[in-house]
Hints:
Elements: H1 2-23, E1 39-42, H2 63-80, E2 113-114, E3 117-118, E4 123-125, H3 136-143, H4 186-189, E5 200-205, E6 209-214, E7 219-225, E8 241-247, E9 250-256, E10 269-277, E11 283-291, E12 298-306, H5 321-341
Parallel strand pairs: 7-8
Antiparallel strand pairs: 1-5, 1-12, 2-3, 4-12, 5-6, 6-7, 8-9, 9-10, 10-11, 11-12
Amino acid sequence: MKKVLLSFLIALPLASVQPLLIAQDSYPRMPSGKPDFSGNYDTSSLTPMNRPEEFGDREFYTAEEVKAISDGAADRLAYGDQPLDPDRPAPEAGANVGAYDGFWMNFGDSASAINGKYRTSIITYPENGRMPGLTEEGKKKAAMRIPFEWPQEYTKGDAWWLEEPDIHPFDGPENLSLGTRCIYTPPASLPVASLPYNNIKKVVQTEDYLMIYIEWNHWARIIRINDETHKHVSHASYDGDSIAWWEGDTLVVETVNIMNEAPREVAERRIVERFSRNDDGGIIYGYTVEDANYTDSYSAEVSWRLTDKEPYEFACHEGNHAMIGILAGARRQEMEYREKNGL
């Protein structure tokens, strides 16, 4: 009888602890108990931003389609790694000779998995999985944006812009895009998109701040947690002003006061991001954009996978060394164009 009683007394506290052990998850947490998202993440994804029209209203890929996407990516990488024929003829004058070798690129190796499911688009709203259209005012502003590179019809090898009174692409550094000047790349930072390369993000978290280090263009977003007040609009910047709060285990980030590159003005734009844990230990990154230039708001969701890879220094043309060549080349082309055309 004593042995039975002793066994019962030993088992009783163990039984009371059991539910607590089961309830604990394996994800890192802060001293406050909130999730700790600190770590390195690969944000690349082969899921298209907009749902291909042939999928109609179908929200998820089949297992066979997911495999085909991964196999296709592997095949393209293998093809790009094949050695070139050293005896091949020169390309035609003005032809595209390509840029990077395949190993420099990082489009991703699979579609984006969210709790084991693969969506047919990163866009989740509107329901058709496609971005809403621009308003008439939005179209006007889109036409004012500085292009990262000019369309092929403009690249004629001469100073074509001298015949275009409203286009001044190479008057000075400020006429080139922020990306060309190695200053800021919006889709790499806010909201975060999958890009051809530099998709590693480093997250550092404390109880009061979340920092996202963005490799392209060595940008650091500093997000204030539990700060209820945004800075004055006079502090507007390219990545805006971000404050965050917790809704359960989801960190919600609101960003306003975002400065446009061109036209240079504070955008009528509000972005709400949501960070939560994925079933693979990574992050489910969701966001909603309210932008006056679009006919509707839009939402998206994509997975960030944990990785042991580190972001490298983004070695763009620091010090604007290439800028001298760009502007000097433009001045030379203008001189030759004027001499040729009697201007």
